[in-house]
Amino acid sequence: MLVEASAPSLYAPNASADPKFSRPLVDTTRTITVIPEKVMQDQGVTNLSDALKNVPGVGAFFAGENGNSTTGDAIYMRGADTSNSIYSDGIRDIGSVSRDTFNTQQVEVIKGPSGSDYGRSAPTGSINTISKQPRLDSGLDASVSVGSAWFRRGTLDLDQAINDNSAFRLNLMGEETHDAGRDNVKNRRWGVAPSLAFGLDTPTRLYLNVLHVEQNNTPDGGVPTIGLRGYRAPSAGTAALNGAGRVNSENFYGTDSDYDDSTTDSATLRLEHDLSDSTTVRNTTRWARVKQDYLLTAVMGGATNIVQPNRNDVQSWSWSRLANTKDVSNKILTNQTNISSRFQTGSVGHDVSAGVEFTRETQTNYGVRAITPPPVNIYHPVSSISVGGLDRNGANANGQTDTFGVYAFDTLQITRDIELNGGVRLDNYRTEYDSATACGGTGRGALACPAGTPRNTPITTIDTAKSGNLVNWKAGALYHLTDNGNLYVNYAISQQPPGGSSFTLAQSGTGSNANRTDFKPQKAKTSELGTKWEVLDKRLQLSAALFRTDIENEVEQNDDGTSSQYGRKRVEGYELTAAGNITPEWQLLAGYTLQHASVREGAKTAQDGGSTVPYTPEHAFTLWTQYQASDSIALGGGARYVGGMHRGTDGAVGTPSSTEGYWVADAKAGYKVNANLDLQLNVYNVFDTHAVSSINKSGYRYHPVEPRTFLLSANVHF
Question: Region (Disordered) spans which residues (predicted)?
């Protein structure tokens, strides 16, 4: 008998690469979006933030506080900052840097609490990148790309079998570019990722992975919001700004001294052993370090920061600038053991994943001398000035978190059509934190020097610790309506303690800092009702889900000046996704979400005084599709919609309280020259949409959507 089956879609992997998710994705009772390597290649994606544009409602929407700007992959998801819930192969990926995808096999986005999966994490989701591993099918893939704004990039992916059971893989990357929409913003990075595998196709396998990435970038403090919808001058004396028009979105308000350097190193050893055909044990050890230092200059908004040499000539006005500095080192050392097994107890089938984890994370922030940049002209900024570099002043802040975690998940096959699943994770943690401030400074947080103490002497300001236990759990049920579709429900609880992944603790007292040691962990409860289907000969996966997340223990200030944890937020809505092949030649990845994020109890956090949670678009849509028109020609295109968002509140006057929604369209044309060479042209923002991509808390600054650009790539395969 001949059995025929369609080849699996490269746009829709069947399973997660994380062994904690042991069921096929179509039978996993969670909203999980997988962005495979094929999609990233077709789109010309080179970094994590761009890859996440394939997931509706996920993105870099927040541009930082007043004078401070966000850096790296500053990701928001379902109303919460998810930057500290980014993982690599199931291990926390430390640091606030931009992550290149040259060594990434796929990106997995899990929406809803992930505490039972990874321990302390953001309340509304997590992001897990999967690294490339050696294979026995030897081959070489290389790419050379050029594009707008002097974009230049080269990558190499070499996989070489050593013998019948061992292989070596090497991934290389180098990139240099100017930002197409921003003057003077440049990026340069290179990376190398060698890996070895032994025992492939045998019961015992050993993997060794090393990663080294260096980046030398110019950070971007953003553009003043003058002239945008909702802007008005902050005072009568500055009313001329109301009719002055927008500033040029290409303007750069930094200095020649601005820089953002980082070095990422990691080494991973993973041993796998099949105890039987149905049981596998894995042990993973990883050491990683991310060192980053930067000087980022941003304008300070508000009437008091405006310099008016000629009050009648707006073109002569300047804004003061603030120098943001960072000199930090993050390290992680972890050992994780997992066992997965399938077995029967009577008529009930079990699919079990259990494990233990020991992790130490440390962070050291070095204090640096104060830098005071001169004011900058609002409409005609000059960046060709030097304000010096970073000099450590002896002050520092040190944080360390030790965690022991144990977890167990089980999916019970009750009948052919009914599955029940559940899991629990217990984490015992201890966070220690101390900080010293250089006395004699000025501005917010300045510390006076004790009598007889020289200026810039480090004075210990905080020395405290917090320990406790976190119990996170999830439970779900799935009913197979047909062989192709199911209906499921899921409920999960996730917690994040004071200090979170930033280690910063505040001593107990009357302050409103959410990281006070006497405060309880933030808790998130999520319920989800959904359905998943495999259609068109199981080439295309469709899903729909209703969700609600309640976040508790938010810190609120009482009328008497004290603080309590009675604040509550809720994010609810629905999500629709499609991934796979409509026909063998036509591929698709699409998603739409509607999300209402509101403050249920406590102070309003949006500038307009409403209950909406900031930086959360109510509507978001993403689509990418590609059609193989012939053996040689492939045509692709996509569209993204990000709905309008409210910004946070901090007392700023006259700045926009929200952003407007916008559409962006992309396109691709591919031509296969022969079996070893193909050419690819990607055009981004085809219609040159001008819009606000992210806005800062005060509304003084924003980052614009990148203008129309192109990328031409030559890809070779052997």
Answer: 110-138
Q: In this structure, are residues 28 and 38 in contact, taking their beta carbons and an 8 Å threshold?
A: no
Beta strands 540-557 and 522-535, pairing class: antiparallel
Inter-CA distances, 566 with 81, 550, 557, 606, Å:
20, 13, 9, 18
E strand or H helix at 43, and its extent? helix 37-43
Give me the DSSP letters along 660-671: --EEEEEEEEEE
Instruction: Give the mean model confidence (pLDDT) for residues 389-406.
Output: 92
DSSP helix/strand/coil, 256: coil
The pLDDT tens digits for 55-106 are: 999 999 988 876 667 788 989 999 888 888 999 999 999 888 999 999 999 9
* CB distance 64 to 647 below 8 Å: no
CA distances from 565 to 502, 506, 507, 514 (A): 20, 15, 16, 9
pTM as predicted: 0.94
Terminal CA-CA length for the chain: 36
Strands 125-131 and 86-88: parallel
Q: Which residues contact 522 (CB under 8 A, 6 or more apart)?
A: 123, 495, 496, 497, 514, 551, 552, 553, 554
Distances (CA, A) of 604 to 239, 600, 646: 28, 9, 12
> Mapping DSSP to helix (H, G, I), strand (E, B) and coil, where does residue 276 land?
strand
Residue 358 backbone phi and psi in degrees, to 5: -120, 120
Give, in order, the Cα–Cα distances in Å from 336 to each of 194, 339, 354, 359, 406. 22, 10, 11, 8, 10
82 DSSP 8-state letter: -
Q: What is the token pair recorded at 451? A: 């009598």
Identify which of 302, 314, 311, 315 has the alpha carbon closest to the alpha carbon of residue 232: 302
Per-residue pLDDT at 4: 53
Amino acid at 314: V
Residue with structure tokens 């040499």?
309
Structural domains present in the chain = 25-717 (2.40.170.20)
Indicate whether 434 pLDDT > 60: yes
For 544-597, the three-class secondary structure string (H helix, E strand, C coil) is EEEEEEEEEEEEEECCCCCEEEEEEEEEEEEEEEEEEEEECCEEEEEEEEEEEE
CA distance 199 to 522: 44
Contact 323, 372 (CB under 8 A): yes
CA distance 466 to 357: 20
CA pair distance 528, 488, nearest whole angstrom: 8
Alpha-carbon distance 349 to 363, whole Å?
44
Q: Report residue 267 as tokens.
A: 């080494």
Burial 166-180 (b: 16+ CB within 10 A, else e): bbebbbbbebebbbb
296 closest CA partner among 39, 554, 96: 96
How many CB atoms are closer than 10 A to CB 529?
15
Instruction: Report the distance separating Cα 656 and Cα 637, nearest Å.
Output: 33
**Other CB atoms within 10 A of residue 674 CB:** 8
